């Protein structure tokens, strides 16, 4: 009897061992998760160029600014704003330079322009599938218009689905809008229609306008960024959450903002503080294996007319030639030590 039982056990082992081996090989062959993205927001409206009027950036200028990034910064991933008015030249130029792109299709009040952006975005996503890695139907649409253009965002997302675009799609907005303007953070109507979630986080502007988080100095900005990411991650379990804009102004040097609710002065503009905020945030994101997009690549003068004295001084590179840039900005996570 013992001999029969031994034979049955041995036969069972011989049958299951190859299966177990095969499963082990499959586990070993499972593709590794892609490395987190470390990107920088890129707009070629520098110098006297203005997206509200006048000529658009030329193909040559787009290429020249991308060369500045490649030569003077470590970033090989950018986030772009729009695909019309000559901005579509960005994608051939980035592909030629080995730069990955998060592409935003600009969505606003003009329905015909939105339709043109959607059509052009679909064509570009198909043409540059290895360069355009993620797409967004709009940026801060709810911040500008409340819920009035939700149907346009949905129309854009649906068009991406119908076109069977391979890249993951979202709509980018501030963390507060992705929390549905509520605390604790709540889901929006886009929760089930997007593939990933892009949130913009700016303690600098919170220091001016928010009453919920009215005072975050540069030394605490990185922790503030991660705390808001955690809030959104809890509200959207299973979704990849990326901070798609974060940064700090460098000028006017030593100037500070005033909170409209409390009167506090909690942020000071300086190159030192800008570097501190960006480097510390990238380090903490890398430790978490999370992606992030620094705002912005090159300072844009036109923003001062929209955002006051601080609007034109967010770039890691200056807006005028020779475009001097901050250095040593990317961060890699420390490998776990074996004990």
Report on the structure:
It is a single chain. The chain is built from eleven helices and eight strands. It starts with a helix and ends in a 32-residue tail after the last helix. It is of the alpha/beta class and 339 residues long. It has helices at 2-29, 59-72, 89-97, 111-127, 141-145, 150-162, 175-178, 203-209, 221-235, 271-288, 304-307; strands spanning 38-42, 77-81, 100-105, 132-139, 169-174, 196-200, 240-246, 292-294. Helix 2 packs parallel to helix 3. Strand 1 (38-42), helix 2 (59-72) and strand 2 (77-81) form a beta-alpha-beta unit. Helix content is 40%, strand content 13%. The protein has an eight-stranded parallel beta barrel, surrounded by five helices.
Count of alpha and pi helical runs: 11
Which percent bin holds the helix content?
A: 25-40%
β-strand percent reads: 5-15%
Enumerate the strands of the largest sheet in spatial order, edge to edge or round the barrel. Answer: 1-2-3-4-5-6-7-8
Low-confidence stretches: 1-31, 334-339
Q: How many whole angstroms does the radius of gyration measure? A: 23 Å
Sheet of most strands: 8 strands, parallel, barrel
- Output the helix-strand order: HEHEHEHEHHEHEHHEHEH
Q: What is the tally of beta strands?
A: 8
Counting helices, strands and paired strands, the structural category is alpha/beta
How many angstroms separate the termini? Answer: 48 Å
Topology:
Blueprint: H1 2-29, E1 38-42, H2 59-72, E2 77-81, H3 89-97, E3 100-105, H4 111-127, E4 132-139, H5 141-145, H6 150-162, E5 169-174, H7 175-178, E6 196-200, H8 203-209, H9 221-235, E7 240-246, H10 271-288, E8 292-294, H11 304-307
Parallel strand pairs: 1-2, 1-8, 2-3, 3-4, 4-5, 5-6, 6-7, 7-8
Helix pairs in contact: 2-3, 4-6, 9-10
């Amino acid at each position: 009897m013992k001999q029969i039982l031994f034979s049955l056990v041995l036969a069972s082992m011989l049958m299951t061992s190859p299966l177990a081996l095969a499963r082990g090989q499959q586990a070993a062959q499972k593709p590794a998760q892609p490395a987190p993205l470390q990107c920088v927001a890129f707009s070629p409206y520098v110098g006297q160029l203005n997206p509200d009027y006048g000529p658009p950036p030329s193909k040559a200028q787009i290429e020249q600014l991308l060369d500045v990034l490649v030569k003077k910064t470590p970033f090989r991933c950018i986030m772009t704003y729009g695909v019309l008015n000559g901005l579509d030249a960005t994608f051939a130029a980035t592909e030629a330079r080995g730069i990955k792109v998060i592409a935003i299709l600009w969505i606003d009040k003009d329905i015909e322009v939105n339709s043109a952006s959607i059509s052009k975005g679909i064509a570009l996503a198909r043409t540059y599938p290895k360069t355009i890695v993620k797409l967004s139907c709009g940026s801060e649409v709810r911040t500008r218009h409340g819920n009035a253009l939700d149907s346009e965002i949905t129309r854009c997302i649906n068009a991406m689905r119908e076109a069977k675009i391979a890249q993951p799609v979202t709509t980018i907005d501030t963390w507060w809008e992705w929390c549905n303007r509520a605390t604790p953070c709540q889901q929006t109507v886009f929760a089930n229609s997007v593939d990933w979630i892009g949130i913009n986080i700016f303690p600098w502007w919170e220091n001016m306008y928010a009453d919920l988080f009215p005072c975050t100095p540069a030394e605490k900005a990185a922790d503030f960024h991660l705390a808001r990411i955690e809030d959104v991650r809890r509200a959207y379990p299973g979704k990849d959450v990326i901070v798609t804009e974060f940064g700090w102004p460098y000028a006017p040097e030593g100037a500070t903002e005033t909170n409209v609710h409390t009167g506090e002065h909690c942020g000071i503009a300086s190159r030192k503080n800008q570097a501190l905020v960006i480097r510390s945030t990238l380090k903490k994101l890398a430790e978490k294996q999370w992606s992030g997009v620094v705002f912005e690549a090159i300072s844009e003068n036109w923003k001062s007319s929209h955002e006051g004295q601080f609007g034109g001084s967010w770039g890691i590179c200056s807006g005028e030639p020779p475009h001097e840039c901050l250095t040593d900005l990317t961060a890699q996570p420390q490998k776990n030590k074996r004990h």
